[in-house]
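User: Fold this; tokens only.

Assistant: Input:
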Amino acid sequence: MKKKVLCTMLSCAMAVTLLAGCGSKKDAAQESQEPKTEDAAEDGAAKDAAEEPAGDAAEDKAASGDKTTFTVGFDAEYPPYGYMDENGEYTGFDLELAQAVCDLEGWELVKTPIAWDSKDMELNSGSIDCIWNGFTMNGREDDYTWSDPYVDNSQVMVVSESAGIASLSDLSGKIVGVQAASAALTLLQDEEGQKELADTFGQLQEFADYNSAFVELQAGSIDAIAMDIGVAQYQIKSRGEGFMIMDEKLNTEQYAIGFKKGNEELRDKVNADLQKLLADGTFDELAEKYELSEMVCLQAK
């Protein structure tokens, strides 16, 4: 009887122990399934927010529409209008004028050298805001939205002083150089321009820039170069003796700033700034600096 009672008591004790053990495991399992604490939730939310893209801020900035830069396309080998100086910096009459406009507007000037025969592609694609670099408007009036003209220019022939070439008729059978896609080339190919004269040449050879053409003229590989008078004067002065500009001119023309067709808003803003620079003397100071005073034609309004 005592043995039976003892067994019963031991069985009850074991049952209580087993129940207690099961209860502990169940509580632990429940605890692991409880939601995160408030602090943990906040940490997770912060992490999620950090991982979200800042798209709204970027869209707001893009939607502001405020112009901060002014990108000018220019020929980097076209002094005195645009070129690289001895310090490796792009400068010139046109680029300094563009910088003065940017100073008035609070814009950053972005100087973008371009291949001259790719200028239309650069402008129409939006890579540049304008073409500003001794850009002839005559014959291109309908192709761009133009600023007011600011320089009177002529197309001339440059020859070696020792070549014995004194008149345009002396160029018959000669090799004449010209820059590709330039106003001089257009003039020499135009039936209403100087094509009749060009037909007398032995060859009309195109160059990417006038520096290369002058190298060939000095070497005797070509006999003359058709080019703008302002660029011709600068080249001759910088290279010293040995070259001359022929007295007979091919034509006269005007320079202006070319904007994408229809961009009258930007054109009007730049025109207004040019008037301010003319009024305060900046325009004339730059023209004198680059020895263009006798060629400028910007009129006060």
